[in-house]
Amino acid sequence: MYSGSEHVLEREARCIVARLEHSISTVPTILDITRTPSVAIGVLHGGKVILTKGIGMCDQQSGRVPDQDTIFSIGSCTKAFTATVLHILQRKHKWKEGEPVSSYVPELNTKYNTDVSKMAEVPDLLSHASGLANLCFSGSGRYGEVLPKYEDVVRVCSNLPKVSEFRASYKYNNWFYALASYIIFYKTGKLWAQVVKEEILDPIGMGRTFASANELDDNYARSYTMLDSRSIHPNHLPCLDAGMPFEGSGSLRSCVRDLLKWAVFIICAARSDGVQNQKVGNEEEEAARHHIMERISLLASLREIQRPHNPLSPSSVQAYGHGLYVLQLPAVDLNKLTNSGVTTSFPYEFGESLTPRTLLGHTGELQNFTSAYWIFPSTASAVVVLSNGSGAYGDASNVIAQVLMQALFDIKPAIDYEYVAMNIYSNSKKVWDDTFQAWKAHRTGDTTPCKDLNAYTGRYVCPEICMTLDVTIPEEKDVSERAAQQLLKMQINGMTSQVFILYHYHNHVWTFMPHTIDDALLSGYRNYIENWATFIIDFTQKVGRVFMEVSWQLGINEPVDPQRFRRLGFEAL
């Protein structure tokens, strides 16, 4: 498959490994800057694994260092698996191009842009082309816990607000990957996790990749929150699991060894010409022929997800495929592909000295885990980086991936990634500072709430996004640290993990804003900290002695109005 003599490749590999080993000396500093406990890395070149390594402690109690088999949550790196399965199903005639999704999910009726439900096809779901808002806090709450039920997916997708025209721009949206998982179930009668295992994990031999925490053995990375002070606090593992709405968006757990196998198959697909026309062996051996045909179907599907389907910006050569970024190097600031609100404040061009080439891959972030894998099909190269860091002070995985890619190809001029990490760290703190200062600036002083807090209590519902808010007066045991204040307790969907203690902001507006970024992280508000308005609970439309409505902004940096929750049971008062 790979051109060039083995001798030349081995000699080149030795030089590359030496550069990689030298570059890895910067990794502990980057981990420290970004407050990341540990990382596992792997590098493929010329189709061969040339380096794997673990740095830091993935289990603080035992002092265990991660290795190539240590399992980490990979978050949105899951998306390419979902996309590949759907293309395999297309080859099995389960769906076809030109067929709107609503033809087999008739209950899909996008209220704020009917073009989506009338015209959207499976590729539109996979390339973030809907133009509808993501409303991330309609899907996940404190600690990243999943809020809706599986059966809520179609209704929520139908009621997402419009932010741009259909197919007019790239707008990242996890809800439509949830819908993609729903379609896999609808078309196969099998759960998403089972189909992914049968169609991808087993054929590739990814024996340490799972969709459920119940499948883990002892060699997995623990979840921690590392504060700015570098104190480390254990957390529960990510709750996103098989059978949940966003399983196809971010539920997979994997390891370096398995993801390098995945990279090899993506490379094989990229470098094969017309995989449909490959010979399929001895037709008399039916079992072997069936196996080879399945392999061809997998490669053809992997080739399809690599096609650039949706430009990241109107004039950009950079694009999103189906579950993969499809980038043309040189490229500006790969950090913007991860947590765009926490990135560098100075421009730099990654791969400046490289001849133009395609870079494929994705990044992921989920509840104190970050991940990145990047693939160069032209040289059969790949880099995989998995960490158990929160990303709150910068995405260590993607920065370290760039360190390794720079060493892999000896890119000049060399970028100082310790400086990059420090700049991202400083900006992450600025994001929090700006959020907190905006929250303070919008606050009106010298106002008081209703003397009778029962004016606010009750059940408020937003059926469009399948969310319920129960507002009560908290018991003393819930609020010992704020006992001197007037407080309310808000609970989402009756979930014990989704309790928010509210204190008065101004007028009839309440808030759950912490006073430090560390308090925010320990309270499970990692994803809220980019927008001050997400911390605001506004009670409106008072009728008699009670309020009839609550407004809450559930999106981050999206031009949409706050979502409205109507009181239930007013007639009985």
From TrEMBL:
Task: Give start and end of each Beta-lactamase-related domain.
Answer: 33-394
- Membrane-crossing residues? none
InterPro entries for the chain: AmpC-like (IPR050491), Beta-lactam-related (IPR001466), Beta-lactam/transpept-like (IPR012338)
The UniProt entry, under Pfam families, shows:
Beta-lactamase (PF00144)
Coiled-coil boundaries: none
Q: Where is the signal peptide?
A: none
> Where does the source fall among the domains of life?
Eukaryota
Family label: Belongs to the peptidase S12 family.
Q: What is this protein called?
A: Beta-lactamase/transpeptidase-like protein
Which organism does this sequence originate in? Answer: Zopfia rhizophila CBS 207.26
Classification of source organism: Eukaryota, Fungi, Dikarya, Ascomycota, Pezizomycotina
